[in-house]
Amino acid sequence: MAIKSTADKVATIVQGYTLEGPTIELGAAIVDGELHKDAPVRLPLAMMNRHGLVAGATGTGKTVTLHMMAEQLSTAGVPVFLADIKGDLSGLATAATGSDKLLARTESIGQPWSGKTFPVEFLALGGDGQGIPVRATVTSFGPILLSRVMDLNETQESSLQLVFHFADKNNLELIDLKDLRAVIQFLTSAEGKDELEELGGLSKATAGVILRELITLEAQGMEKFFGEPEFDTAELLRTAPDGRGVVSCLELPTLQTKPMLFSTFLMWLLADLFEDLPEAGDLDKPKLVFFLDEAHLLFNGASKAFLDAITTTVRLIRSKGVGIFFVTQTPKDVPADVLGQLANRVQHALRAYTPEDAKALKATVSTFPTSDYDLAETLTTAGIGEAVITVLNEKGAPTPVALTRLRAPESVMGPSTDALISSTVAGSALLPKYGTAVDNISAYEKITAEGGDYTGAAPTGPAAGAAHPGGSRGRGQSGAGDGGAAPGAALDPTAIDAEARRIEEEILGRPSSRPAERPKQPEYRDAPERQAPRQAQPTGGGGIGGGIGDDLAGALGGGLKSMARSLGTQLGRELLRGVFGTSSKRRRR
Ligand SMILES: Nc1ncnc2c1ncn2[C@@H]1O[C@H](COP(=O)(O)OP(=O)(O)OP(=O)(O)O)[C@@H](O)[C@H]1O
Ligand SMILES: [Mg+2]
């Protein structure tokens, strides 16, 4: 093949990125070391629901890329959700002032630039941060996601599905963690013996382990994430009065201490949206674009059921008009089944220091279409704020690979001031709706209420008190609130462990076989680098029905599988909970 001239390479790019319809302008191509501002690189808005990947080594510009894309989406009237891991995306609410250096950059790529603010809604999980509190009810969260937060194995996960099934059938609303604990305690009590037997497949021993993990969760202060008012994910689809898309910015300031909880919550938001949105067919522009920064946290140590659910969601949500962009360091952080569905690629520079890096580089190169670039060379030498790009054109074919100098954001690359964030939150229409947690009658109250249907099942002992810290509604029997350990980070993990073991032993009627001390501090047990994947290879799901069937079969271990088959129709209710076992608030109404 004859060597192509630079002019021919530029012509290929110009032609490949001459697109019909509205676009997100990404930047200008660099060919043979020269920047060509007359060769713009862009992404059709109509193709953003074909999902994407923004990858690259640390500090190469991934977060700025998603910031810049979010601005243009908002301007085009598309709502955006993003997880603000490092707090540097709150700057979207503050107009940038262009330095000479910045303006030289924007001029060089042909970007008309002026400082702007964008309509930002600040959210905070469980009120952990300044934003509007985002909570989910336990029932909505569902057993698969909760199993992941609790680090349950697949047998325990299937047992937890049975607990949810029992609660669903018996009108025991699982709103917060103490509701779930009360139901498990009931099932393992003398009074719940018949129900437990009828349920089948749930052993006392497994229930004891789940209970133990639940208590650990409460003791880690996780209660505030679960409860009412539950966040309505339809809030993420709003536009501002001027027609621009609202950018919902979920602060995750303490992500590193609870990566599993936070990444699982992001999946809950997505799963909840997925369940509620109608099929939309091909739209001119997406209804929402969802950016998942630090996406590797989603996949680390994921169970097969969880991975299948992500794969299924990613595959099916695009026809509902939602685009998902994963942001992570290398494409190998993303399972192949998911990666294969990410059509729009923005690959920032990769390092090649170690043999491991070299392998990742090679793998990354092989995922790109053939091109006029030496990609291994290009990817190791690309500058900060530059990336190798290929996207889908409006006909659904990949555009030519182009090394691109990316546009700069028009709002601040970095945090907004605390004062601005607080005043934005104080003025938000969502604050009256979600600002204050409420505790309505639910399973815990029903089970512990005297004369209720479940009188025998009052949680007893200090653990009951642990989940009822204020004692404000201390209607529980026999010792609820009687000097039990209060939840919170200040608790000694050894004491929590001892208490959890005591309860487990009480249920089992024999000494716990668990090691006396947790091998790791609970706060860090989810740290990605320490977590060995449970399932080496993700597998593809089927359609919704097939996928869930597979998920469940996969999730249920050993003899439980045949039990699940025979329970077929009974379990049908759980299956309808959704791909992730979640249950939509609107469908529960
Ligand atoms: N498109 C751009 N225009 C102007 N400056 C940029 C651009 N992209 C990146 N930069 C500069 O590079 C810095 C680092 O970028 P960024 O924070 O996006 O890196 P990152 O890949 O997200 O890193 P990490 O993996 O550590 O989160 C920015 O603070 C900014 O100064
Ligand atoms: Mg970043």
Automatic annotation (TrEMBL):
Residues 36-450 form the Helicase HerA-like C-terminal domain. Residues 458-491, 506-589 are annotated as: Disordered. Residues 458-470 have a biased composition (Low complexity). It holds the Pfam family HerA_C. Residues 471-486, 539-560 have a biased composition (Gly residues). Signal peptide: none annotated. Residues 515-532 have a biased composition (Basic and acidic residues). This is DUF853 family protein. The lineage of its organism: Bacteria, Bacillati, Actinomycetota, Actinomycetes, Micrococcales.
